[in-house]
Amino acid sequence: MAATVAIPVLAADEEWQEAEAPPPPAWHKEGLLAIEMPIRTSLNFGVDPTTLTIGADGVVRYVMVAYNPTGSVNAMYEGLRCDTGEVKTYARSSEPGQWNKVATPVWRELDVTQSATRHTLAFARQGACDGNAPGGRTPEELIRRFKDSRQNP
Question: What is the DSSP string of 74-99?
Answer without folding.
Answer: EEEEEEEETTTTEEEEEEEEEETTEE
